[in-house]
Every structure is written in C-alpha cells, then in structure tokens.
Design a protein that fits this description.
This protein has about 280 residues and is α+β, with helices and mostly antiparallel strands. It has a single domain (about 10-255), classed as 4-Layer Sandwich (Phosphatase 2c, domain 1), CATH 3.60.40.10. The protein has 7 helices and 15 strands. The chain has helices at about 45-60, 70-85, 140-145, 150-155, 195, 200-210, 215-230; strands at about 10-15, 25-30, 35-40, 95, 100-105, 110-120, 120-125, 130-135, 170, 170-175, 175-180, 190, 235-240, 255, 270. The strands form 2 sheets. Strands 2, 3, 4, 5, 6, 9, 10, 11 and 15 form a 9-stranded antiparallel sheet that branches. Strands 8-7-12-13-1-14 form a 6-stranded mixed sheet. Strand 5 (about 100-105) and strand 6 form a beta hairpin. The protein is globular, with a radius of gyration of 17 Å.
Length: about 280
C-alpha cells in the first residue's frame, strides 16, 4: 500500500501466450511501487528465462513506498549480469529481453513516475482522455520514423516492425532510457508488450481505457481485444490507477495466467533523470 499523498495505487496485470506461440516469453511485475513488463527473446529456455529474471530482480523492490533511482539501476544491472551469464548454458541462443514500465520515486519530496525502457515494449500515460506514449521504442521502424523515412502508420505494417535495436542482454551492454514524470492523481499508466501494440492501435487502446475506469476491467478488455485479433505473439498488459475512484471495487493486483515461476526523442514535458 502506497503512503504517497496521491493515495492508494491499484494495478491489474495480465499475460497470455497468445493464439499461436506455444510458450509465453513475457513476464510482468505489478506490485507497489514497481509496474513493469519484460518481453523475452532468444527462444524457449532463453527468452522466457531472461524475462523471468527481470521480474525476479524488480520484485525485490516491492512493498516499498518509493524507490531511489540508483536502487532501480542496481536491480537492472543485477538482471543484466544474470542474463548475460545464460549465454554459456543456452548454446548459440543469445538470451535477452525488453523492459518497460514505471517505478514510483521521490524528487524533492514529490512523487514521480520513473519511466524505464529498453526495447519495444511500451509505457503509456492516459490522462485527460488522452493517451500519450512515454517510452520511445528501440526498434528498426522507430529509427526509420525518426529519420523521416517511414510514417507511424506505415510502421504498423512494415515487415521488420518486430526487430528491436536494443535489449537487456542479447550479447550487448545497452542501458535503458530513463525519464522522470510528475505523478498526477488522475494518471493511469499502461505498460504492455508489443503483442498488444502491434495488434491494437492506440486509438482503440485509448477507447478501451475510457470505457473501463477500473484497472482490472481495463486490463481484461485490452487482453480480450488483442486475443480477438489472433494474437500471433505473447501479450502482456499492466494497468495502474494512481488514485482510483473510491467507489471502484478493485483488488490491489490481479494476475491472469502469470508465469511465477541511446537514442531518444526529446519530449518537452518529460524531465531527464538526474544522474546519481
């Protein structure tokens, strides 16, 4: 339970293998103050292990009211070391994973979302009936968009739309992007793997969030929509309500089929994280 003045955050998390793939390589963590999705790569026993490692390391932060930036970086570094060590045991498969989400932190005593992103999983904020992507994809199509050679609409159909340029592990030492975003009591955060965003356009996502003010209902609706398209990839969603209406009856976290087992685009409204 959060002790922040904005009230009690409520989250719902769902992950599903989809309609085609036999193994779910996604993992989620949704426990105050950490809300993240990891989408593994490298095949069974590589990608699913890598994403599970991220969830395990970030879960060490759960139960805290807030987390300092160096603590978040330390957990990501620990996950990277463990994932890189998988290389010797997985043969020629380079285990890796995307990571995206938010962690509640404090800056000058005020609550902020610490947005973390590496790869093409995404973090959105829904506020004032508008959906805004806070993270920036590390992908081939995003590089083409940035260079003016591809429109966002064209990117949705591009044959290499699923090719990431950075990941945690995968034989490389990439660092995540970090931003600090002030928390507004009306904020709703959506974190998801590309299994959602490649099948469900942003306007549909925004519409479903508008229709379902409770985190659990929104997560279920988003998952159902992704699965209805055929869901060729694993799908994971985490919905966080910063300060849910008191009349809503929500559980703190609802897990469904959960496996327990440097280029960024400047955004004027986002503050770059001060270095510790």
């Amino acid at each position: 339970m959060s002790a922040l003045p904005i009230g009690c955050m409520v989250a719902a998390a769902m992950t599903d293998a989809g309609r085609v793939r036999p193994v779910n390589e996604d993992a989620v963590i949704a426990a105050n103050p950490v809300f993240m999705v990891a989408d593994g790569m490298g095949g069974h026993e590589a990608g699913d292990t890598a994403s599970a490692i991220v969830a395990e390391e970030m879960a060490r932060l759960r139960g805290l009211d807030s987390v300092a930036v160096p603590e978040v970086k330390a957990r990501i570094d620990a996950a990277r070391r463990r994932i890189m060590a998988l290389g010797s045991s997985k043969g020629d498969k380079q285990a890796g994973t995307t990571i995206s989400g938010v962690v509640v932190t404090l800056l000058d005593g005020q609550p902020y979302w610490l947005v973390v992103n590496l790869g093409d999983s995404r973090t959105y904020r829904y506020a004032n009936q508008e959906l805004e992507q806070l993270s920036v994809d590390h992908s081939e199509v995003q590089d083409l968009i940035k260079g003016g050679r591809l429109s966002p609409e064209q990117a949705r159909e591009h044959p290499r739309r699923n090719v990431v340029t950075k990941a945690l592990g995968a034989g490389a030492l990439f660092e995540p992007d970090y931003w600090l975003v002030p928390i507004d009591p009306l904020d709703r955060i959506l974190v998801c793997s590309d299994g959602l965003t490649t099948e469900v356009p942003d306007n549909k996502i925004a519409g479903l969030l508008a229709q379902h003010p409770d985190a659990n209902g929104a997560a279920q609706a988003l998952m159902a929509e992704a699965l209805s398209t055929g869901a060729p990839d694993n799908v994971s969603v985490v919905v966080v309500n910063a300060n849910p209406p008191s009349h809503l009856d929500e559980t703190t976290v609802n897990f469904h089929s959960l496996r327990c087992d440097q280029d960024t685009i400047p955004r004027a409204q986002l503050e770059q994280v001060p270095q510790p």
